[in-house]
Design brief:
The protein has 112 residues and is of the alpha+beta class. The protein is built from five helices and four strands; from the N terminus they run βαββαβααα.
Amino acid sequence: MIEVIVASRCDSCSRCVDVCPSNVFDFDTQGRPQIARQADCQSCYLCELYCSADALYVGPDCEQPEGITEAQALASGTLGQYRRHSGWGEWAGHYRNLQWRMGEVFQRARKT
């Protein structure tokens, strides 16, 4: 579930707002994204994938929030980890992105 938008990292690009299939985000009075409907989050991680500023923390529990703070998110060292390990954006070619080719993975698994 979406937990935190780290204000010091957010560049207000609004990609998180655009890609969210659950319409979790709204804009604050300064035009920055804010979490408006946290309970609607599906934990699909699309917002985190598209956030090139690594300003979002999405927790793994899609049923309830962890209650993590911005300081805890920064200290966790996990901001941007999902993007990196998915080989997304500037990380393409650095990590093998098998998540997006599951059909091929299943075929290989059947052969073993």
